[in-house]
Amino acid sequence: MPDKYMLNFDSRVLPQEEDEYIVLGSGIAGLYTALAASGAGGSVTVLTKCSMMNTSTDKAQGGIAAALGDSDSPALHREDTIVAGAGLCDDEAVSALVNEGPKRVKELIGMGAIFDYDGHGLAMTREGAHSQRRILHASGDATGAEIQRVLTERVREKKIKVRESHFAVDLLVWNNTCYGVLAFDRDMDSLKVYRGKVVVLATGGLGRLFEFNTNPEIATGDGKAIAFRAGAEVMDMEFIQFHPTVLHLPGAPTFLISEAVRGEGAYLRNSEGLRFMPRYHDLLELAPRDIVVRAILEEMARTDSNKVYLDLTHLDPEIIRKRFPNITKTCSLYGLDIMVDPIPVAPAAHYMMGGVKTNLVGETSIKGLYACGEVACQGVHGANRLASNSLLDGLVFGGRIVEETRQFLKDYHPRHPKFACDWLLGPTKIDFGELRQKLEALMCANVGPIRNRGGLKESLAFFDYWSYLNRHTVNGVEQMEVKNMLQVGELVAEAALSRRESRGGHYRVDYPDTHRRWQKHIIFRR
Ligand code: SIN
After folding, report:
1. Catalytic site residue 289?
2. Residue 13 domain-assigned?
């Protein structure tokens, strides 16, 4: 297969390490899985492509949803998740999430995570499409950073091996069984083989495919790309969630303004100063994200503006400062006092519902290969994720992988085949930086929150043109990332063209209605 690998290599001459679990990624899904596996007696190595803390988890603001409040229940959380998922949630996956979620969150607290408290106990906020206040948060709007801190500390304490600056180039799969990972050590500028009985993908999402996004620079879709190249099934690739409110200010980075800000009562106003959500949905500013995003885009077009405004000026400044210290500080760095100035915002790519298809215990279509967190898709988020369900997803399904695998590992002694590739042509001379910019702009223009056949066809022609790169080897991580981005970008565009309806995070102007006959998943395999 000419495009199975990204580099020429021969595993017989490369240094090798072996562990029972090889976990790729160091966000909540990766570190929690590593801790659970180590706690169950497994030997574990975590590979992460940058530093351990450089993850989407670390950036998460709003919080983690769990039915822990007195008036709440897993059944209510389940109902909200399923309504948001627009007909495509997997019932059993959602039940696992909402029923096991509270226990996993308590476990996090037991590990030392410090969430915010009010006079009644754990403080809980609301976000879009939640019928209850059930979002736990930490240091106001730095929930992910607290979770990342605690998991990182516990991993270090347990002396779990973490290899930073290790980029997973490709999975080593033979006869539909995964035996390990070919990794590139960026510090040593060399390749190495990590052999494992269980390889867990926890590499996160692909927001960086879009010029405007909320994701850290690591989110280039690598896990989805390497799994697809290795022959794994991927599902629901057309469903990308755009976040409605991302800071849109010349010179400022694309910084997320948490949905919890609307949960605490902020209004959305158009550039004429008018509050517009009452014209779009009964839940006003807390309508499902896709609806808020389209309302914003419509208002931007109507008023000929590239932004709308998030207005907190009617709220108690003391509460704002306390609940959103990070947002207050970041906005002030760019000259905005959010107590008096409405915040200019626009939608940006935020979260990928689709990914490597797994069952309810994280197993992919390849034996020995598991996936959890944003890289995975077991249908828990359907066509549209309910806010603050993603951190919970990483915990619940990471935990399930370890529960599933620890038994069979004892009697599983694979004989590792040799792996090699010598058929790739030399590197091309093209400018990968320029190619990446073109790709990001194209994804925003044609595969964003509003899609149509013409734009999707144009994108597919772009991917088709660049597919000749698959016959060539590459130089360095930046080029490998671009190849992964081309791979997953094509899958997103292909799935979006195939789904001739609109649903959740996928909206086609040429097929604006939702159809029962499309209440099904699109699954690709190379
Ligand atoms: C936010 O804080 O608005 C993001 C939360 C999420 O995406 O779940």
Report:
1. yes
2. no
